[in-house]
Specification:
With 579 residues, the protein is mainly alpha-helical. The N terminus is likely disordered. It has five domains: 63 residues, no CATH class; 104 residues, no CATH class; 95 residues, no CATH class; 151 residues, no CATH class; 58 residues, no CATH class. The two termini are 13 Å apart. The protein has 20 helices and eleven strands. The longest helix is centred in the middle third of the chain and has 18 residues. 47% of the residues are buried. It comes from Pyxidicoccus fallax. This is DUF1549 domain-containing protein.
Amino acid sequence: PGPGPGPNGQDAGCVEPPPEDGPDAGEPADVLVPSRLLRRTALALRGEPPTDAEYAALEAAGDEAAQRAYVSAFVDRTLQQPAFYRTLFESARDWFNIPPVGPTADPPEYGLQQQRSIVRCPEGTPKAGAWKYFRDDANACQGQKPDGTPAEERTIEPWWAPGTTAVLVGKAASVSPTGQTYDASGFPVTVNCVTAGPVANCGCGPAAVRCHADRGSYPGWEDYGLHSPLGQRRLVAEEPARLFAHIGWHDRPMTDLILGSYSVGPTNLQAAYVMQGLAGELTYLLDDDSWWRPSRFANAPVDPEHTQGDPTAWREYSVPARNPFFLEERDYRYDPRTQTAAMKGIPAAGMLTSLGFLSTYPRERVRGARALEMLACEELSPPQGQEFNEYKRDPGTEGPCQHCHRRVDPAAIHFKRYAKIGHGFEGHGATYPMPGIGKVWHWNPRWRTSEYPFHTDPFIHWNRWYMPDTLLTPVTEAQAAANPEAVFIDFLPPEQNLLGQVSDGTVGPLGFAKLIVASGSFDRCVVRHLHAQVMGRDIDPTKEAGYLEDQVARFISAGRKVRPYVKALTQSDLFQRGR
């Protein structure tokens, strides 16, 4: 089917040809009556049928032409209502299907926050209402140190409640530049509190940003439970879908979903990005209040369900401003085979560098496979009845698994530089190394042996799968021996391609994003999902290739924006005929 004028006289595409045989040969298919068209429109755009008042207004509009004009105006109104934002969010949430970050021990120990839990001192204690570390400071609420001397106390404006004051007591109130912890053998170790964070007897820092105020029945559950819409575990899972809805609502090009350096999130979500920057010892973030003080983000674009300046709103923010290891640069290149200086970071890439996506899928191949499925509509199915060469060490070039890995590994190579060590413990404990980046995430070259203390994840995973001279790790044995971090190469070399595209050398997930956009796969995938939302069915790329390309051309010509394309679909011949 090719484009043609719809019932309203506009060229909206999706035209169904008249039957070529049978009793209805040469006759156009029936057009939906205005009431059924209104119902279909309401279900497609807001997920619920028209109200009695809307049906009454349709009837009062006049003749059939006037009623169809009413439906067209209804589309325009609905596209500007919060219900349409909600539809975009819910459809994207189902589409991406990103689960919450899984627990790594007993719930609620799932990691991510990288902040130490503090709780209020109970009523009846000398320091009732003050905040203290949940563990390892038993006498703080009595106003005492373990030796019986007065405990430290400090009044602050906390990041979680701007414009108010809170009292920290005990170790949480410490402003000492050094603290003491213990190594694996039990020997005391002196740490720099500015860089180490709230470990041992180090304090919560300015505005208590190193800590998380927990009002739940047990520290951690407040953010772990998915019933809480403001719990960080739920927020990070929703961020990609919220970004999709934000881009559609604010009429941005949909390529921002994977090419942009911004995202959306409430204060409690942005805190996770700030903590990751602090984990890399970017200590100047301690004094940055732009992410938690409302006056600093009063003008940020937000979702239609909140007002600007609301700390709980899904507001737009610059990802590099929160975690500068996600770079603003759009063409950053780094080749560990030839460069020895530490890598600056990886470019921010919309949902592909969201902490929910990276943390939920802890392995680079899973990230690459899911990114191909979600954003390029690739189908990774096992082969049948084929013969393969013997598998020895590289699933990308050997054995039956290469059927998928020839596509997966050129995608997965872009997702190496984010991992996890340890498990979350009441908001603190798990760390997320970005190997080879900055000055912190480097280790003694012995890590390549997997011997103690490098006998656990992620080191054993890196050593098992980042093998030189493989599709995933295209470096030589000599290059890896000279620089063990060369195995973290995270751009596609020119001798490989992804979906027929050759990389420009951009590292990290942004390099992957550029490739799927250049191939056209991203645009086709977005169009298919928007088409399914509005029309009620997917487009089969094998049987409707011409129709799909026509729809993609319409989407691109409208600036890759959601509203114009959705409007065009509702005006199409097929939509108005109920097909």
